[in-house]
Amino acid sequence: MDSRGRTIVALATGLTQAAVAMVRLSGPEAWAIVRKLARLQGSYPTPRTATLMRIYGDALSGIQTLKNAVLDEAIVILYQAPASYTGEDVAEITLHASPYIVRSVLELSIAYGARMAEPGEFTERAFLNGKLDLAEAEGVNDLIHARTRAQQQQAMGLLQGGLSKEVESLRDRLLHLATLLELELDFSEEDVEFANRAELLELATSIQARCRELAATFSRGEAIRSGMPVVIVGRPNAGKSTLLNHLLGEERAIVTAIPGTTRDTIEGECVFSGLLFRFADTAGLRDTEDPVEKIGIARTLEHAKRAKLLLVLVDASSPEAERIAVELFQVLDGNSRRALLLTKADRVPDSALGELRNRLAGQLGGEPVLPWSAVSQGGDAELRGLLGRIAAEILPEAEEVVVTNLRHYQALAESDVELAQLLEGLQSGLTQELLAFHLRRVIAHLGAITGEIGVEDILGNIFQNFCIGK
Q1: Which of 359, 394, 429 is the last residue of a domain?
Q2: Are residues 174 and 293 located together in one domain of the fold?
Q3: Could you tell me if residue 353 is inside a domain?
Q4: Final residue of a structural domain among 334, 368, 394
Q5: Same-domain status, 386 and 437
Q6: Do 234 and 161 belong together in one domain?
C-alpha cells in the first residue's frame, strides 16, 4: 500500500508533563488497531461516543509481562469517515500521560500496522480529502501557535474561511468571463465576441483594486501573526537595557554604568493592548575602536532597518541631548516608524524638559517626543499610550479580512501583476489568446491561495511546519 494510504499514528498532545495525553490514529485500519489494542469483541462502539477501554500491553516486543496485562485504562472516541477531521476513519485514545504508556501505545499501534505521522499529516489529509481548503489548513497551524487574542482571532477567521470566501468570490467572477473567452477561441474563425470587453475591463479593474486592498493589509497582518518588531537604539548608557527590563517586567538585560555593556542584541516579548510586541535592546551607537563593539553596532543598524518601530533613546540630562537626538534621527532615517524617548527625565527640571521636547518636536518633523524616567516612572503612561495607539492602528476591525501569511500576499501580488497586463491588453486590443492567457494566470494565482490548483510543490513546505500530531 502507498505510504499516503496507510494508517498514521501520533501523539496529538504536547510532550510536557500533564495528567492525560491523546494518541490519534487516522486511516483505513484505525478502528482495527483499536480493536487489537483493547481486544474488543463484537461490534465497535457508537462513533463520537466516549468509551472506557482497557489497553493491553503484553504484545510489546522484547518485554516479559503477565498475560492479559493491562497497560492503561483509556477513553476512546471513534470517528467514521467521512465525518472526521481528516475525512478518514479516526480514533482518539486519551491515556494517562505516562511517557512509558504513551510510547508503548505508539509502538503497539505501529506493530499492528500503522506508521508514525509526518508533521502536519493529519491536516494535510484533511485538505486532500476536501475537509479544509489550503488557507483554512494554514489557519489550523496559526491557531495552534496563537499566543494573543488577536492571533487567535485572525487564525480562527482564516480557519473559518474568511480569506477563502473572499478569494473564491473573485475567482468565480473571473471564471465566468474566462469561459466566454475560451468560447471565442473555439469559434475564432467566425469572428464572434462572447466576452464583453467593457465588462471585462470593469471587472478586472475592480478585482485588481480588491487584490491591492488585501495585499496592503499584509504589513498589519504580519505584525499580528509574528509580533510588532520594536528596536531600542541610542548612545551607550542612554537607558536602553533599563527600558527593555521595565517593559518586560524582568531583568533580561544587564544594566551597568559602564558604557558598551550591551554588545549583542537582547530580545523579549510582551503584549500591549492585545498586540504582541517584540522588543530588541541593541548595542549603543558611538565611534569605537573595539572590534567586538563594532560588530554589535553593525548589528544594531541591521536590526534598525528591519524594525517597524524605533524607540530612539537620548539622555535628557546630557548638555548635548538636542544635538545627539537630531544626529541619531539622521543616522536612523529609513522606513521605520520612530519615537524619541528623553530618558533620565527626573534629572531635568520640568520647564527645561518641556522646552527641549518642543524644540525637538519641531526639528524631528512631528515624530513623538516622550519623556521617560526609570526612577520616577514619569512618562510611562505616555509610552504605553503610544504603544496602545500603534496596536489600535494594526488590529483589525470586526469582520475585516487581513492577510497574515506571506504565501497569500505573494499570490495576491502576482495576481496584481497579471491583472495589470490584462488591463493593458484590453486597452491596446490584445488578441483573444493573450487575454485568455493573462486571465488564466490570475485565476491560477488566486486559486493557489485556497489550493484549488497548482499547489503540489508547496504542500510539503506548508505542512512541515505543523506539529506531528496535527
Answers
A1: 394
A2: no
A3: yes
A4: 394
A5: no
A6: no
257 is annotated as contributing to ligand binding: yes
Annotated binding-site residue? 262? yes
For residue 296, say whether it is annotated as part of any ligand binding site.
no
**346 annotated to a ligand binding site:** no
Rounded to two decimals, what is the model's pTM? Answer: 0.79
The answer to whether 50 is a known ligand-binding residue is no
Q: Judge whether 441 is annotated as a binding position.
A: no
Query: Annotated binding residue at 242?
Result: yes
281 is in an annotated binding site: yes
Read off the pLDDT of residues 188-235 as tens digits, 9 standing for 90 and up. Answer: 555 555 557 788 888 889 999 999 999 999 999 999 999 999 999 999
Q: Summarize pLDDT for 234-287 with one digit per residue, the tens.
A: 998 898 888 998 888 877 555 555 555 555 678 898 999 999 999 998 888 877
HEC profile of the chain: CCHHHCCEEEECCCCCCCCEEEEEEECCCHHHHHHHHHCCCCCCCCCCCCEEEEEECCCCCCCCCCCCCEEEEEEEEEECCCCCCCCCCEEEEEEECCHHHHHHHHHHHHHCCCEECCCCHHHHHHHHCCCCCHHHHHHHHHHHCCCCHHHHHHHHHHHCCHHHHHHHHHHHHHHHHHHHHHHHHHCHHHCCCCCCHHHHHHHHHHHHHHHHHHHHCHHHHHHHHHCEEEEEEECCCCCHHHHHHHHHCCCCCCCCCCCCCCCCCEEEEEEECCEEEEEEECCCCCCCCCHHHHHHHHHHHHHHHHCCEEEEEEECCCCCHHHHHHHHHHHCCCCCEEEEEEECHHHCCHHHHHHHHHHHHHHCCCCCEEECCCCCCCCHHHHHHHHHHHHHHHCCCCCCCCCCCHHHHHHHHHHHHHHHHHHHHHHHCCCHHHHHHHHHHHHHHHHHHHCCCCCHHHHHHHHCCCCCCC
Based on the structure, what is the number of domains in the chain? 3
Task: Check residue 468 and give its pLDDT.
Answer: 62
The answer on whether 7 is annotated among ligand-binding residues is: no
